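OP here, attaching both records as promised.
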Amino acid sequence: MKYFLGFLAVITLVVVVFIIVLRGFTGSAEKPKQQLNLMDYVNSQTVVRYTVSGPVSADPKHMEYRITVGRDASTIEVVQGYQNNVIKAQTYDNNTAAYADFLRALQLQNFTKGNVDDSRSDDRGVCPNGNRYTYEVETAGETKQRYWNTSCGGGTFLGNGANIRALFQRQIPDFGKLTADISLGG
């Protein structure tokens, strides 16, 4: 009987050690960041931004455009060089109802879904011959979200890039005219 109790004690000890070891390997992993709910920001000064950066090139040839949409305004900026020299900008009025519809559409296209792995957060130089796209949520000057992907594939963004690109472009009535003379390559 005492051999049987000793055997059970050893088995119990092995199970407890096994559980502790497994928790040690899985417990140290960072918990996934909770996805933002864009509808929480409808009545705030929060803005969402979509940026397209052209291929890596000489400073005077490097181009990008960024579209920033907020509750009160939508803005497009055409940027030249790596010093963010705005060469053209246009702002359009917006309103709460339009912003709410826009945010809901973005949410449905997974604008806030991405990989939060810090080792993948730096997109500089990735896809040097193509375009890089960034998807941001900013409130009170603080970036709440920043994901990216490229025309070469890869990145941290997990949403529907094509639909989101079209949604942002439609927020700018003169989008085609304002971007007609810039070449992003890729």
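Record two, same layout:
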Amino acid sequence: MGGTPRLIGVLGGMGPLATLDFLHKLLQARAALRDQDHVPTVTWNVPQIPDRQQALAGRGEDPLPAMAEGVARLNAAGATCIAIPCNTAHAWHSALSARSRVPILHIVDATVQTLLAGHRGGGHIGLIATRGALDQGLYQSRLEAAGLDYLIPTPQDLDTLFTPGCYAIKANDIATGGRLLARSAQALLDRGATRLVLACTEVPIGLQHAAPQLLAISVDPAMALAQACIRHWEWGDT
């Protein structure tokens, strides 16, 4: 790499375990033979950012000021791009990008790129995401633009399986969260999904514990984002 050394900024804390999982995936995704071959990062892992799901539902504090503070800290630390390992937080992607001197990678764009690279035609994508992300159409609009068919969880499955499963992971109850998220994933498969997009960063953590076999038919947006970070570090791509 020539010119100014590149540095990945990670706006984390949403949740903190998902941030650690993302950093682990960033290590896994890089072909490295020694410490010095890995991607340099600076991470803002501050979990006091207000709940994104509650904010989008109109029941919680706006998380934008706290996220913007993290973006400012990462800019000041010398980040040359920023990754946000939280899908729902991308509802504020445009607002955060306007406050950043450096580009903020988009987790959905990275995921769609991964889907298209492995697309074999036919079949439905089962989209596992928060109600807030689904209501914002974060994934749906980009999947439709790419010509990809998808299914989303039913309102009942969101209320009884996904949401409590997600919050169980955040509370470090991985066993309970994993069981509920595995049932949410299986419900989409039972309705005809042939692949899954794990569009909440708590989901891969839960499935790894409760149903690791489902990971083989899944695209993990956190891993797609990690690969986008590596492309930025190696080539300056954003």
